[in-house]
Design a protein that fits this description.
The protein is mainly α. It has one domain. Helices cover about 70% and strands about 5% of the residues. Strands 1-2 form a two-stranded antiparallel sheet. Helix 1 runs antiparallel to helix 2, helix 1 crosses helix 4 and helix 4 runs antiparallel to helix 5. It is globular, with a radius of gyration of 15 Å.
Length: about 140
């Protein structure tokens, strides 16, 4: 019940805006055809951005113990391209939202979530969202 309340407050007080930001970038990436791998990551992280409490994003390499296309050299190249094109914009949005949340004591947990999402925004390729208890 507590997780639901945190997620509801998050969604109403900033999660909706940042999640829509992720999805907007995903739609733009998908329209370019070349950006489809980034679009998929945008939609996954965007959904995570809507309801982050009770979930976390982890590297698939960490989760499975194996390297795949997104966690190897191509994933690194994809994350570099992502960072230059869109990652830093989303990270700045999350950091600005975090600063706004840190103004109040009640907003501190939300600010911490924004910081986690800002770090994910810098390199989302090779990440997977899992329930917190699964990791």
């Amino acid at each position: 019940m507590f997780r639901f309340l945190l997620n509801l407050l998050w969604f109403l007080l900033g999660g909706l805006v940042m999640g829509l930001g992720w999805w907007l970038v995903g739609v733009i990436a998908a329209l370019t055809i070349v950006g489809i791998p980034w679009a998929r990551a945008c939609f996954v992280i965007g959904s995570f951005s809507f309801w982050p409490f009770g979930q976390e994003a982890v590297s698939r390499r960490e989760l499975t113990g194996q390297e795949d296309l997104g966690t190897g050299p191509l994933g690194l190249l994809g994350n570099v391209i992502w960072f230059v094109v869109a990652g830093w914009w989303l990270a700045i949005g999350h950091l600005a939202s975090a600063l706004a949340c840190f103004v109040t004591i009640i907003g501190i947990p939300f600010g911490l979530q924004h910081i986690k999402l800002a770090l994910i925004a810098l390199a989302p390729i090779g990440m997977q969202v899992v329930p917190s208890h699964q990791r």
